[in-house]
Every structure is written in C-alpha cells, then in structure tokens.
C-alpha cells in the first residue's frame, strides 16, 4: 500500500449531522492506546489522602480559616440548610442558587466544595463554643456548673436545628477534612478543658492523669455527654417540648448522665 493510501485509511472522513470529522487511530476498536480511565472518586482531588476512612485534604491547598465568616453569611447559611435537609450530595450550584449568587461567585469565596464544607463545619463549631463559654461558670458547685453547660448546649441545638443537624451530617459522612477537624478541636479547646476540669472534680475513678487532657477516659466522657445531649435534642424536637416540659426534659437527661457517672 502506498503512503498516500495508508494516510487515507488512517484518517478517512466520517459523516454525521452534515459535518465531516476525522477518526483518530486511537478511537477505532483494536488500534492505538486504550482510553485512560480516571478512577478518582467524584469530588476527590488526586492529591487527597485517605486517613482512617476520612479524606485528608491537607495536600489540596484548602484554606479553612474562618476569617469572620458566621453561620448567617448567605452562602454558609444556604449550605447549612441544604446539608441539613438533603445531606452531603447537594451540589455547589444548588447552594449558590439558594444563596442568590452564581456558582462562580461561590468559588470566588471558596476554592472548592471541600473548602465550603470546612467553613460550614467550623462556623457551626464556633457558634456552639461561644454558647458554651457563656453558659459555663468558672466557680460554684460542680453539678450546677455541668448542668448549666448541658442546658445551654441542648437549648442551642433546639434553637439552631439546621446547624446542629448539618454538623452531625458532615461529621458522620466523613466530609470534614482532617485539618478542619483539628482546628475545630482547637476552637472548642477552652470549653473542653473547662468541662474536663469539672468532670475531674466529681469523678476520678478510671481517669489517668498521666495520659493528659486527651486521654481515653476523658475522650469517652466527652463523647458520652455529647451523644446524650444529641439524643435529648432529637427527643425534645420530636415531641415539641416547650416551657416547663422542656425544662423537665433537659433536667431528666442530665440526671441520667450524672447518675451514670457515679454508678
């Protein structure tokens, strides 16, 4: 076969919708290199690393500093409401539309959906920490101090149901980056340390001071308290408790936790 004939065979025209296009060798079955299949999960950058089931996006260049962004900021507010109602599959386009801005404007503020998720989570944690700080007393009977903290957290959850649910949804779905989770711990650190001090005042059995403030027993008690407060929020919201009924419900939940500490 002549060189001209070979070229004609390789680049023969194909007609479609009145237009002609040339078929590249790699597009025909049995010729050229196979197509490259991108196995990266949707929404996951190639630089992402999985750390114990949670995507660690430290290499993705995500800026997760709050810089004054609060839950009331339109894009963050829209994201919180949609995450709470629809879960983590909601798109940035949907969030932008709900916030009344273009998708391009959203990405002018947040370089990726991951950056937005981290900002949302940190904004909620900051609001929770601010509420806890105002409810925690530096002195007084241990039980009263812990009850005030418990009461404040449950009432905040009921007053901010979308925020509370969004934070739980994002955390449970492992959507928050490891960097943002670490920053959230730092933002809640003053509250964590105060509550730990209160717990240590009333309970020493099983606590190992040598393990420090982040020891297993300390983490277990904080996790147990958070789980019971979340249950109290969900039950009160489901029953629509108000006034004295809500007061009794919050107190009952706390008493169960308190007696569990001394069982």
Automatic annotation (TrEMBL):
Q: Where is the composition biased (Basic and acidic residues)?
A: 49-60
Listed name of the protein:
TetR family transcriptional regulator
Question: What UniProt keywords apply to this chain's record, in alphabetical order?
Answer: DNA-binding, Transcription, Transcription regulation
Domain HTH tetR-type, first and last residues per copy: 69-128
* One Gene Ontology MF term: DNA-binding transcription factor activity
Region annotated Disordered, chain positions: 1-62
Source organism of this protein record:
Eilatimonas milleporae
Pfam families hit by this protein: TetR_N
Residue ranges of the DNA-binding region? 91-110
């Amino acid at each position: 076969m002549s060189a001209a004939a070979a070229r004609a065979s390789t680049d023969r025209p194909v007609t479609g919708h009145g237009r002609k296009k040339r078929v590249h060798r790699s597009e025909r079955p049995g010729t050229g290199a196979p197509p490259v299949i991108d196995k990266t999960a949707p929404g996951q950058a190639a630089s992402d690393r999985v750390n114990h089931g949670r995507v660690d996006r430290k290499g993705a260049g995500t800026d997760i500093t709050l810089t004054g962004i609060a839950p009331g900021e339109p894009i963050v507010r829209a994201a919180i409401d949609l995450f709470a109602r629809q879960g983590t599959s909601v798109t940035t386009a949907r969030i932008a539309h709900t916030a009344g801005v273009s998708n391009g404007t959203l990405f002018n503020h947040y370089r990726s959906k991951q950056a937005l998720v981290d900002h949302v989570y940190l904004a909620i944690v900051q609001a929770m920490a601010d509420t806890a700080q105002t409810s925690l007393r530096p002195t007084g009977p241990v039980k009263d101090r812990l009850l005030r903290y418990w009461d404040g957290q449950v009432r905040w959850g009921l007053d901010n149901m979308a925020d509370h649910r969004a934070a739980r949804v994002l955390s449970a779905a492992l959507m928050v980056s490891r960097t943002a989770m670490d920053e959230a711990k730092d933002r809640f650190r003053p509250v964590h340390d105060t509550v730990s001090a209160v717990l240590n005042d009333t309970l020493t059995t099983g606590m190992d001071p040598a393990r420090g403030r982040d020891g297993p027993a300390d983490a277990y008690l904080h996790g147990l308290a958070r789980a019971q407060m979340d249950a109290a929020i969900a039950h009160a919201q489901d029953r629509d408790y108000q006034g004295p009924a809500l007061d009794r419900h919050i107190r009952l939940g706390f008493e169960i936790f308190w007696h569990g500490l001394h069982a």
